Amino acid sequence: MLSIKDLHASIEDKEILRGINLEVKAGEVHAIMGPNGSGKSTLASVLAGREDYEVTAGSADFEGKDLLDMAAEERAREGIFLAFQYPIEIPGVSTTNFMKTALNQVRGHKGLDPLDAVSFLKLMKEKMQLVEIDQSLLSRSLNEGFSGGEKKRNEIFQMAMLEPKLSILDETDSGLDIDALKIVANGVNKLKNKDNATIVVTHYQRLLDYIVPDFVHVLYKGRIVKSGTKELALELEEKGYDWIKEEVDATI
Amino acid sequence: MTEVAERSKVLEGLNTRFSGLNSNSEFHTIRQRAFDFVNEKGLPHPKNEEYKFTNVTRILEKQFDISKKTGHAVEKSDVDALIFEGLDVVKLVFINGAFSSELSDNEEIKGLKISSIASAIEINDPQFLELFGKATKDNNDEFAALNTALVEDGSFITVADNSIIEKPIALFFINDATQEKNYTTLRNLISIGKNSQVDFLELFSTKGNNDSFTNIVTEILVDENAHGNYYKIQNNNDNASHIGTTQIHQKRSSVFSTYTFTLNGGTVRNNLNIAVDGEGCESHMYGLYVVNGKTHVDNHTAADHIKPHSMSNELYKGILEDTARGVFNGKVYVRQAAQKTNAFQSNKNILLSDTSTVNTKPQLEIWADDVKCSHGCTTGQLDEDALFYLRARGLSKTSARALLLYAFAIEVIESVKLEPLKNYLEHIISDRLHKDF
């Protein structure tokens, strides 16, 4: 589904990603872990098409198409979803209205007719249950005055509405208490199937107790320096990142 | 022509027009005083702090002959075209400065008295003579004086005590510049009695593409415990210049809200002055300007707190594109006696081009020591992070941008209490943001 080869990216001439290689297949869950500043969020942003980053080398192929050639909205319409680490507050726009516009533009891209009001509401009701989010929250201004947990649940709700092929969760767990974390993880798990894939970017192993990854990758200094299975995450939890840093720094 | 010669041309025009007015009416003494004031002071030039960014005088000098009136060919269909869906109002129509009884409604409504200013002057209406200039007595604006000197028509509206006027009163001001340029003077005098309630709309539009200029003054006297909303909607063509003063005097426990929407025009200058002259008053001032091309819009507002325990709240927002220019000056005075005043002011602008500009200046002068006042102004571009967020959900750049601008504007539109007007503005703004901007 997604094939990243030797991806380099920088912001303001500072190189953050320095040769990422990653293969993600349908039905898989990949966790990307790593110490602060290793480039995790940059990778998520670059894949979603944030224009602040400049891709200087490498390629990213999504379902046979050149991902890097597409604008952010095209990637979203092709089925890439980024759950933001810090969801934006937009006063004056309700989640409902925003989702209606987004969903219909995505549908238009697929050659589908826009959903009528009744079908849209029905779909919303169904997806709301998935993340245990209240209707009243969705009629309010997007994320404005939402708690951290509400914002993250809203991200997963949007993901549920748009039914992406590849979801990238950027530190969706940080700042969440255990109840909120369970709700968010539960939502993600219910959306998982054999045709879609998930990349979970996280700093903590805790989330991976609830969203069980098939692969765990450790990002350090802009490269994936170690890959393994979920046991690697447990090892990291136990031993921290220092041993990996030492290992990598010794070989340079 | 040199500037001096041009200047004298305006005053000459004033003289010619003035000498043609009916000097037998009792109103003429009021006019004469204003006429002398303008002759003595002249019209303001950019050295005058109040007109630093907006040289209204220059437009008059360069383009208009104020000595004469101009004809028109406005018909009922022109007026009908201005009435938007659901708008159920008492309609008063003014064309090139003159009241049109044929095009206006003539409905009897209990507690409401409407006459044209022309007839009030003609019959020496004692109530008119008593109320005229009451609200503007401390106003030293030269254009307001020019208005008083040359006024011939407009509306004189009184709402009796304890009257709830259900239907809003809509004043349609149409300038027909199809055949030639025109200079128009208009005046409204509105008095709202104790415990009464009424809404007003002033709707401005132009016909034809020649230059036009409107000088309008609206005086509103709001008596004790009265409630009112006043909406000003300016949607003129590119060649229409406008200078308007809205002068409001509020008495004890009254609640009054003003809304100023500027959607298009040439040079637009709005002066809004509110004297909060009673305890327990509430004054709201909302403004929204969404302009592109070469439109220049200047809002000067002043809230003068004279008595204690009142509040004023001001929110003006602007979206500017191309070489459009915005000016905002918000004065808040809190006099020594006006303890426990709450006064808030905010002006926010989004510039969509490198060539659009905004000059914004809050000006608070506070003599009382126990008050709550705040002000803030921001001018910036669209938030890039928000744009990316929306695009990352599949919205095109254009619709993401329109959605954000709409969200920015809606804060002002949502405060509109008149549902059909709210819908009309919502449509017009959302349409505009998708197409022109």
Name a few traits of the molecule:
heterodimer; A: 252 residues; alpha/beta; 6-stranded mixed beta sheet; 12 strands; globular; B: 437 residues; 10-stranded mixed beta sheet; 9-stranded mixed beta sheet; 24% helix
Number of strands of chain B: 19
String of helices and strands of chain B: HHHHEEEHHHEEEEEEEEEEEEEEEEHHH
Largest sheet: spatial strand order of chain B: 2-1-5-7-9-11-13-15-17-19
Taking all Cα atoms into account, the compactness measure Rg of chain A is 18 Å
Beta-strand portion of chain A reads 25-35%
Number of separate helices of chain B: 10
Helical content of chain A, roughly?
Answer: 25-40%
* Lateral strand order in the biggest sheet of chain A: 6-9-10-3-11-12
State the total count of DSSP E strands of chain A.
12
How far from one another are the termini of chain B?
39 Å
Estimated structural class of chain B: alpha/beta
Ranges of chain B where pLDDT stays below 50 over 5 or more residues in a row are none
Mean pLDDT of chain B: 93
Describe the structure.
The complex is a heterodimer of chains A (252) and B (437). Chain A is of the alpha/beta class. Helices cover 39% and strands 28% of the residues of chain A. Chain A has helices spanning 40-48, 72-78, 95-109, 117-130, 135-139, 148-162, 178-191, 230-239, 242-251, and strands at residues 2-11, 14-24, 29-33, 54-62, 65-66, 80-83, 90-94, 141-142, 166-170, 197-201, 215-220, 223-228. Chain A starts with a strand and ends with a helix. By secondary structure, chain B is of the alpha/beta class. In chain B, strand 1 (90-95) and strand 2 (98-100) form a beta hairpin. The model of chain B has no long low-confidence stretch (mean pLDDT 93). The chains are: A alpha/beta (252), B alpha/beta (437). The A-B interface holds A 48-52, 71-73, 75-77, 81-82, 84, 87-88, 90-93, 98-99, 101-103, 105-106, 109, 141, 158, 162 and B 383-386, 388-397, 399-400, 403-404, 406-411.
